């Protein structure tokens, strides 16, 4: 319970420190690069502990049996393995159960890729996902000697990054472990922030001034990022990835105008997608934010689309009138913790009825909060797999 006058974040941190005190061997194994910084890492380590409060409790402290690739059901007969189920859903063929998946921002950009992989696999196994959507939060590296982008001259100094360098290399280490653990059992896709999104994460809010004041020079940096991402996504599929989950942040009028989207986002997105469209079997575009430009994305060469349908038009049924692509969605990632089971089950039923369970994968509209109770995910999984 929360102490009187204690803020929610303070409660989370306090409980986390009580459950996982300093020196906990499991945490030291998960966060060696953070612990090396000693006292300077105290705040960061506390935040990471809080971030993993429920995840660690339910996943990392338990030995999870390796799945056979057949789903664990609440009744009835399972007739498909996970890969067959996902492919059938994408292709609009009959499925025994509508596949489902979930994802967090795990905060593993602070640890080496092989350690981060254990988190991904533990999460996949604990919640028996039909495929793993792997988070990728490693930052695009700045040139040596530069700590941040301050002006257009800094921006023009961005350098291409090879798949064997920096955060790309760490993420590929992660994916190589995931590929071995899930081989023949389930697909995985890697999260790719699109070139504009990478630019935004790299230059922060300065990105808007750069693209509007120096549009042609801004494209120089976008070109460098795009070239790097093209080579990286090829490496992802070569490792065994089923595709990519391209997160697009500029397809919202809250972020850019339609003219700016057409100039600074779409052409670069298409180049990244063109690099994997012939090899991938599960390429997904996620349209991030509100007031989205849904129709501007419809010609992206992907198998599935994702957006926050619970808050952002179009609805699943309205979107079906516009495209035959598979949809990911149906789950409100903003639901409060400890939402009653019947409300969770009703949301699953509503999504299945709205889509008729065809060309549909049950998933959150965006990443779920890392402190979402595990029981809520279990209820969602069991609801979608209930015999009908």
From TrEMBL:
**UniProt-listed InterPro entries:** Methanogen_methyltrans (IPR052024), UROD/MetE-like_sf (IPR038071), Uroporphyrinogen_deCOase (IPR000257)
Coiled-coil residues are none
Q: Which GO terms describe its biological process?
A: porphyrin-containing compound biosynthetic process
| Gene3D superfamilies per UniProt | 3.20.20.210
Q: Name one GO molecular function term.
A: uroporphyrinogen decarboxylase activity
Q: Name one Pfam family in it.
A: URO-D
**Source species, domain of life:** Bacteria
Domain Uroporphyrinogen decarboxylase (URO-D) as annotated: residue spans: 82-386
PANTHER family, sorted: METHYLCOBAMIDE:COM METHYLTRANSFERASE MTBA
Q: What is this protein called?
A: Uroporphyrinogen decarboxylase (URO-D) domain-containing protein
Q: Which organism is it from?
A: candidate division KSB3 bacterium
